Structure formats: C-alpha cells, structure tokens
Amino acid sequence: QRIPGPVERPGLLPLGIPAIDKVLGGGLMRGALHEIAAAGEIHLPAAAGFALGLAVCTPSPRLFWITEDMGLAESGVPHGAGIDAFGFAPERLVMVSTAHRRDMLWAMEEAVRCRAVGTVIGEMRAGDIGTVAVRRLSLAAAENGTLALLLRATPPNDASTAATRWIVGTAPSIPGREQSEREIRSRLTAHLVRNRHGPAGSWILEWSDNDERFILTTHAQPVAAPAFNRSHRQVA
C-alpha cells in the first residue's frame, strides 16, 4: 500500500516521500498538467518509468498513454512485463498513437476531459509546443480533476503553464539490499526545475516493489542540478 505524505488534502497526490511532498505542498497536484522531460533521449526510459510510477499512485482504473507514431518507431511501446513490475495490470493501459503532434495533443485533451480516465500520459519527441495547446491541457485537467503528464524526450526551452516541470535521468543501479536478493534495483534522478507553488529540488529515487511507490535511495549522493546553458544533447 502507498504510504501517504505528511499532508494529505483533496486534489493532491502524496508521493509518500516527506521531502518531496513538503516541497510540493502536500503532494503532486491532481487536476493539473505536469511536464516530465528526459535529461536526453538516452534517458527517456527513466523519464517514462517516473511518469508510470506517478500514474500507479493514482486510484484510477484506466491509464491512457498517447504518443506520436515516430515515438513508437524510435523508442517502442511500453513493455507489458515492465508495466506489471510496477504493480500496474497491463490490461488497464490504453495505448493510442497519432500521426502528428497536433493529433497527439488533441487526443490527450479529449482523454483528459473523459471523467472515466484518471491519468493521461502524452509522449512527444524533441521540440517545442505552443502555449495555447499547453494552456488548453491545463484547463481541461483542472475541469475534470485528471492527472495529465506530458512526457518529453529532451529538456524543453519553451514557456509552460504546467504546475511542475521535471528533468529525469538515469542513475547508477545497485544490487538488492538483502543478500538473498539478486535483482538490480533501478534508480533515477528527479530534478524538479519548475514548481508553480513552491521551491525546486533534486532527489535520487528507486522503485519499491513492496510499497509500490518510489522511495528515496539510502545510498544517494548529493544530486547536482542539471546545466541548462548547454545544448540538449550535452545535458545527458
């Protein structure tokens, strides 16, 4: 079971990590748009895992994952076994692919407006999007209380009305804590670089199968903030 954060209020999604929930004012705002960008295209699996981990925390029977056709050609589709490892039944996932970015944004807005959907992930390739499209997604999410996550392949330079913007990358993996555990625990770095309702922050996280949520790694070193005065490919 997910452990709630120190403050739990309607409209917020506590991540169960006090350090992060405090920065977020009690949790991730539901009924809002949040941007999750990979530190570089090679880090896209980590960013996608972070988005999926947030979606798992929501009590929603359906997750819509909408992506551009080119994204599927370059990165593939979410793997069923990987989704199951997050404790999320693959049959709860609805995949939608579109030919163009404008179609992806339109489909994402339509899914966000559906009251039967609790979480929508829109995956886009590198590039900017217009402020009008982002504002429409933010308003649609607010109207229906939907968690909308815009997954981006590289750190964006455009302005945004999203509630938060995260830059996510991979971190060195470590063996399981118990000697009997042979699996390697995947870790990621999560940089909260924009927070409309509080400060920024950086953390190293790993997924806990027992709790079915992210936890702070106990082996973490101080996290350096990403450099934004370099090109996208140099950020990775």
Describe this structure in words.
The strands form two sheets. The protein has a nine-stranded mixed beta sheet, sandwiched between helices. Strands 1-2 form a two-stranded antiparallel ribbon. Helix 5 (101-113) runs parallel beside helix 6. The protein contains seven helices and eleven strands. 27% of the residues lie in helices and 30% in strands. It has 236 residues and is α/β, with parallel strands linked by helices.
Throw out a few tags for this protein:
alpha/beta, 9-stranded mixed sheet, two-stranded antiparallel sheet, 27% helix, globular, disordered N terminus, disordered C terminus
What is shown here, in short?
The protein has helices at residues 18-23, 44-56, 69-75, 80-85, 101-113, 131-144, 232-235; strands at residues 12-13, 28-29, 32-38, 63-68, 93-98, 119-124, 147-152, 164-175, 184-195, 201-208, 213-216. With 236 residues, the protein is α/β, with parallel strands linked by helices. The radius of gyration is 17 Å and the shape is globular.
